Amino acid sequence: MKLSDVIEELEKEKGLDRATLSSIICEGMLAAYTKKYPDLIFKVIHDKKTDEIAVSVEKAVVASVQDEDREITTRKARFIDKKLKEGDTVWLPFEGKIGRIEVLRAKQVIATKIREIESRAVYDEFKDKVGSIVYGVVHKCERKGILVKIQDVYAFLPKVLMSPSDKCIVGHPIRALLKEVLLQPRNESQLVLDRASKDFLLKLFELEVPEVFERLVEIKSVARAPGYKSKILVYSHDKNIDPVGACVGVGGARIKPILKELGGERIDVISWGDSREEIVRDALKPAEIKKVEIVGDGSANVWLDEDQRSVAIGKKGQNITLASELSGFAINLITANNGKDGRMVVSEGLGEASGVEQEEE
Q1: Other Cβ atoms closer than 10 A to 321
Q2: pLDDT of residue 352
Q3: What is residue 287's three-state secondary structure?
Q4: Over the stretch 5-28, which tens digit does the pLDDT of each residue have?
Q5: How many CB atoms are located within 10 Å of the residue 49 CB?
Q6: How many domains does the chain have?
Q7: Residue 90 to residue 11: CA distance in whole angstroms
Q8: Is the residue at 53 inside a domain?
Q9: Helix, strand, coil shares of the chain as percentages rounded to 5?
Q10: Are residues 57 and 151 in the same domain?
């Protein structure tokens, strides 16, 4: 096979231009000859007239040759170029051969260079899309996550960045947040996806709710327990727009696609209140709260009836943890119990309850 045919075949397969491929092949052959003859200096080019690789070696012009591979006599040199004199150097065709091991070396260098160019192309194509939602198809289910095909590029959705409700079904379409683009592939992919973060939820609302995308409705805060429940705090910059209604839509038309995307994960959409007490009260929904008192900058005492205590806490303490994260306050639940106060304290951002056993709905 002619070298031009090899280049043409690689051009179709890899989508690289001929000049780049020609340069890569020459670089691979240079590595092969250098491996076989480490003491010599080579130059390798693609001779387009003969359509072959032309290998040249650098030789010194000397009065008397001691090393034929690296030297040439002044008399012979002047047959090539009359201007050459002792002490000059000249490039001459190299007739030495390389073996199977050196050919393998050339193939390794060529393959590595092509991978580097392909990786750079993927990086350049996707680097500006980090933080946005991308669309793909489930290609393979693996123990550590899901391999997703996006156009002709593979992306990886790690299990730690999946929601518990996510299922891996080969061939099914999938949406995810592009979390990171790597310069070099890790296993089979350079793109790292995410479906468990608050940012993914936020981007879904931007896709489904025009007012959020246009910043007429601002999502002030997001708290999420993937697969269980999320809470978002919304504020309208236009007094004529109801922020909750805009996010939910008529008959739930806007929020239903988001719920479906999240596999039934529940979402509480809460309007930004006029006071910090009101925000804490609404963040604890669906529990009915009697009174809220802000203590300092970081805590809130919340009074409620005994029968609302488990509702406020939620399954495995998740409702009160989400409420604390959303509002930014450590919440102390206080209930009447035979004339004494029963308290439950949740530290902000820790998702832990102390003082009582966590309850389920």
Answers
A1: 24
A2: 38
A3: coil
A4: 667 777 777 777 778 888 888 999
A5: 6
A6: 4
A7: 34
A8: yes
A9: 35, 35, 30
A10: no
Convert the pLDDT of each residue in 105-152 to its tens digit: 888 998 888 888 889 989 999 999 999 999 999 999 999 999 999 988
The β-bridge relationship of strands 217-225 and 229-236 is antiparallel
Cα separation, 321 vs 350, in Å, equals 8
Q: pTM of the full predicted structure? A: 0.77
β-strand 71-73 against 89-93: which pairing, if any? Answer: unpaired
Last residue of a domain, one of 107, 125, 143: 125
Quote the tokens at residue 128: 């500006």
- Residue 296 belongs to some domain of the structure: yes
Averaged over 256-276, what is the pLDDT?
92
What CATH number has the domain bearing residue 152?
2.40.50.140
State whether 115 and 12 are in the same domain: yes
Q: What is the pLDDT of residues 276-321, one digit of tens each?
A: 999 999 999 999 999 999 998 789 999 999 999 999 999 889 999 9
CATH of the domain at 312: 3.30.300
Which residues lie below 8 Å from residue 8, measured CB to CB, with a gap of 6+?
Answer: 18
- Residue numbers of the domain that contains 260: 197-272
